[in-house]
Design brief:
29 helices; alpha/beta; seven-stranded mixed sheet; single chain; binds magnesium ion; 27 strands; six-stranded mixed sheet; 890 residues; binds adenosine-5'-diphosphate
Length: 890
């Protein structure tokens, strides 16, 4: 599937210029041309209005009324609008639904317009901002605990050099990675961008990799232009200080920066210098594997129920974002993994220390995103206070940690990254009140004692207000009207107010009061004393606000100029949070520190699946731990056993253990030892995987082919019921040859779950393959699934036990036993699935012994099922049983 080229995407292009277009329509169309395929929010008074197709799209997404306004080319113009004051929530919904929005504001006042072009002049409007999923900085529109990435995919040269640049502009993090074409999907799946930029000439851009794919002009992707653009953006003479970049990397970064320039329309943008992401130091995990293992999000798209959602105990939003990155991209560098493990270990051993550290971190605000808003010119006093509190807290933390004698080496190396903000923190502490407002407009956020002149202005205002209060008492005295009040409002400013029945006294010419306004019950006056006191208050107030704004600007500049050091400190805090969170979760769930071996092995004792275990725990059920032991001599385990027996769970838990270990965390097991995995693959047979809605068997084979092409002796592969998506014979044949290839060619560690018992014959020829099964037992007529992995192949009687359980008549089961015995005898001889069927006595011949079996097994089994009495899971099982009856040819 690919996204239509840009020209076709914009169905909202201006209709051929209509001669009778009004000036407003002309202005609208010129803005719409600038907005491209973004929805245009056109400011009119207190509303943003949308017209034509934009209006139709917005009205249906937002579920608001679609009306019309005037005519264009003889047709009514569709229109809808959203109030400016609540625009943000509408924007959030539009972005979520996959739209991008261009905001056109009035850029002059009506008076200015009149002065410019006479009384009929239209107020000038311009696009002041684009709001797109990948470029949000608004706190309200962002999810604190997840990164929000914009990515650009560039391909240069005939060699097909491909690179991806990705930025989270809410924190300034900017990375770039060069990839081989076949790795593009995997990298994009790791980054999970909310918006992806591709060249308008790019072909075959898969739609599902990003919520939104945006086509940009080819010129944005020129690597030559990119170099200049990046140098200008970062204000450097050369990019050499950031590293050496290939043409593809330059093109991707350049396209990303060009787009940011375009959407920010002149506003500053926060990007840190680009980091080259080393895919070489990372475990390769392709998109299908990520999806099936549900590392950071479930197949349904949520965070809950994923590995991340289950184990996340971070106490800061930045920690949560880093943990997601870690799980999405485990390491392959042993030293780096050991560094992280040592830190987790140190924190795991000392619960008191861990508790203190976590309490301290929990109190820190999200400084990374506060900094992002300040750099983007959208920050305020509250953001500065957040920096003050976070960096000040970091300083205390640093002092406390430095006193510990046995710091894990990684922590000792990280700590200096918290230094150097003392002067800024002190300045902010002196300058700001404790909890300043988000918005600077009303002032009041600069602390007393920071600026003597400001204090004097505030004093003047206070004195003025006191004088006004004194005047009120004085006027009551003088007029004898006890209900006289001095009030303030936006229109009249300070004024005297008396009930209408007392107004006459003040109306008298020599009263000293001047009439201003008569309302239903009250009459309002001014006086020269009051006017004088009031203007002192107002003047001082205006000056005070201006003085505060000047301080805000200087303080913001001071923070912004240290942005890279601040961002680095935020990273350090996040790393500590992640380690403490992993340690905390490990301790409360009895996890262990994994050992890293130098040879390709995977030895796990008492391994568990954290997500399944957590789900079972909710209903008070116990998870049965299982061991695995893969080595060079025994590297392929074939796991058989009844449906629902725990095969898939066993496979996945071992893949998750590998991911957790190489992300530098403890693992859900009693003990674990593994040789580092370079590539991890997980495949699930098609019928377990309907959610993806593609031609499932085709997908299954494409994905399996990728494993056969890419898995190395250092890789770990789990194959779950591969071959299930097609007919029995095809499926068995394919599963058979895939196992052989994995064993003979790839020589990787592999767990292969299958319902084809015939595959167990492979153990005779493949010496590094061994047979295992999930145990089940019949007990008092019930089939008990033990969820226990044991050696050897499964014995086959459970299919029949299940049939009996399901109410298949005894005669039919008996008949089935006869058929089975025959099949098995035949298989002994030939090894074929259906071998031996030829000399099977006809079904009819056995009717005499088993009259109850007169109907065919399938009908009987069906008749034994009461759909109304089945839970969905049981229904699915029943379906599998029925399919099995057909497959077994019974
Ligand atoms: P299979 O792949 O063999 O059909 P699954 O792995 O899907 O079986 O497991 C089916 C259900 O059995 C799971 O949803 C879970 O509730 C339960 N289960 C699986 N493994 C275990 C285990 N080790 N301990 C306890 N319950 C388990
Ligand atoms: Mg399964």
């Amino acid at each position: 599937m690919s996204v239509p080229a840009r020209s076709a995407a914009n169905s909202n292009a201006a209709p051929a210029a209509h001669p009778a277009a009004t000036p407003m329509m002309a202005q609208y169309w010129s803005l719409k041309a600038k907005a491209g395929d973004c929805l245009l929010f056109y400011r009119m008074g207190d509303f943003f209005e949308l017209f034509f197709d934009d209006a139709k799209a917005a009205a249906s997404t937002l579920d608001i009324a679609l009306t019309s306004r005037g005519e264009h080319g003889g047709e009514p113009v569709p229109m809808c609008g959203v109030p400016v004051h609540s625009a943000e929530s509408y924007l959030a919904r539009l972005i979520k639904a996959g739209h991008r929005v261009a905001i056109a504001e009035q850029v002059e006042t009506p008076a200015e317009a009149k002065a410019r072009g006479g009384s009929k002049a239209l107020v000038a409007r311009d696009i002041v901002r684009f709001v797109t999923a990948g470029t949000l900085t608004e706190e309200a529109l962002l999810e604190g605990r997840s990164a929000n990435r914009l990515a650009a995919l560039a391909q240069v040269g005939s060699e097909g050099e491909v690179a991806i640049a990705a930025a989270d502009i809410s924190t300034g993090r900017f990375e770039v990675v060069a990839v081989r074409p076949e790795q593009v999907d995997a990298e994009l799946a790791r980054l999970a961008p909310s918006e992806l930029l591709v060249s308008e000439s790019a072909e075959d851009v898969p739609e599902w990799v990003a919520r939104q794919v945006v086509r940009r002009p080819q010129s944005d992707f020129s690597s030559a232009a990119a170099q200049k653009r990046l140098e200008t953006f970062f204000g450097v003479q050369t990019l050499d200080g950031f590293g050496r970049f290939g043409r593809g990397e330059l093109a991707a970064m350049g396209a990303l920066v060009a787009y940011l320039d375009h959407v920010a329309t002149g506003q500053p943008i926060f990007l840190q210098p680009p980091l080259k992401h080393q895919s070489s130091g990372r475990m390769a995990i392709d998109a299908a594997t990520r999806e099936s293992l549900e590392l950071v999000r479930t197949m349904a798209g949520g965070r809950d129920g994923s590995l991340l959602g289950t184990i996340d105990r971070t106490v800061t939003a930045a920690g949560a974002r880093l943990l997601a990155d870690d799980l999405a991209s485990p390491l392959t560098d042993k030293a780096a993994i050991l560094d992280r493990l040592d830190l987790v270990d140190g924190l795991a051993r000392d619960a008191l220390w861990r508790g203190e550290l976590r309490a301290a971190l929990r109190a820190l605000p999200d400084a990374g995103r506060a900094l992002g808003r300040l750099v983007a010119g959208r920050g305020g006093p509250r953001d500065l206070a957040q920096l003050r509190d976070a960096l000040g807290g970091a300083r205390l933390l640093r002092e406390r940690l430095a006193r510990r004698p046995d710091l894990p080496p990684l922590l000792a190396r990280l700590l200096p990254g918290l230094d150097g903000h003392g002067a800024l923190v002190d300045e902010l502490t002196r300058a700001l009140i404790d909890t300043p407002p988000v918005d600077a407009a009303q002032g009041g956020y600069v602390a007393e004692g920071y600026d003597a002149a400001l204090d004097a202005l505030r004093e003047t205002a206070r004195d003025g207000r006191k004088a006004i209060a004194a005047l009120e008492a004085q006027y009551r005295d003088r007029t004898g009207i006890a209900s006289l009040k001095i009030r303030h409002n936006g229109v009249l400013g300070y004024h005297v107010e008396v009930p209408a029945k007392h107004a006459d006294a003040l109306m008298a010419p020599e009263s000293g009061f001047a009439h201003r306004q008569t309302l239903a019950g009250v009459v309002r006056f001014n006086s020269s004393d009051l006017h004088e006191a009031a203007s002192r208050v107002t003047q001082a107030g205006v000056h005070a606000i201006a003085a505060e704004a000047a301080h805000l600007e200087v303080l913001t500049e001071a923070a912004v100029s240290r942005r890279e050091a601040i961002a680095a400190s935020c990273d350090v805090l996040a790393r500590i949070d992640v380690a403490a969170a992993l340690a905390d979760h490990a301790m409360s769930h009895n996890w262990c520190r994994p050992d890293l071996a130098d040879e390709p092995c995977l030895d796990v004792a008492g391994g568990r699946h954290p997500v399944v275990e957590a789900a079972l725990a909710k209903s008070g059920e116990r998870f049965v731990p299982n061991d695995v032991s893969l080595s060079e001599a025994d590297r392929l385990w074939l796991v058989t056993g009844p449906n629902m027996g725990g095969k898939s769970t066993f496979l996945r838990q071992n893949a998750l253990i590998v991911v957790l270990a190489q992300a530098g965390g403890f693992v859900p097991a009693a003990s674990a030892r593994l040789g580092l995995v370079d590539r991890l693959f997980s495949r699930v047979g098609a019928s377990d995987n309907l959610a993806r809605g593609r031609s499932t068997f085709m997908v299954e084979m494409v994905e399996t082919a990728a494993i056969l092409a890419q898995a190395t002796p250092q890789s770990f592969v789990i194959l779950d019921e591969v071959g299930r998506g097609t007919s029995t014979y095809d499926g068995l044949a394919l599963a058979w040859s895939v196992v052989e290839a994995v064993h003979e060619v790839n020589k990787c560690r592999c767990l292969f779950a299958t319902h084809y018992h015939e595959l167990t014959r492979l153990a005779e020829t493949l010496n590094a393959l061994s047979l295992h099964h999930v145990r089940a037992r019949e007990w008092q007529g019930d089939l008990v699934l033990l969820h226990e992995v044991a050696e050897g192949p499964a014995d086959r009687s459970y299919g029949l036990a299940v049939a009996r359980l399901a109410g298949v008549p005894a005669g039919v089961v008996k008949r089935a036993e006869a058929v089975l015995a025959k099949l098995e005898a035949g298989r002994e001889k030939t090894g074929g699935l259906a071998a031996g069927l030829d000399d099977l006595p006809l079904f009819a011949a056995t009717l005499a012994e088993a009259p109850a079996a007169a109907k065919d097994a399938l009908r009987e089994a069906l008749a034994g099922i009461d759909p109304d009495a089945l839970a969905p899971r049981e229904a699915l099982d029943a379906l599998y049983r029925l399919k099995q009856i057909v497959a077994d040819g019974r």
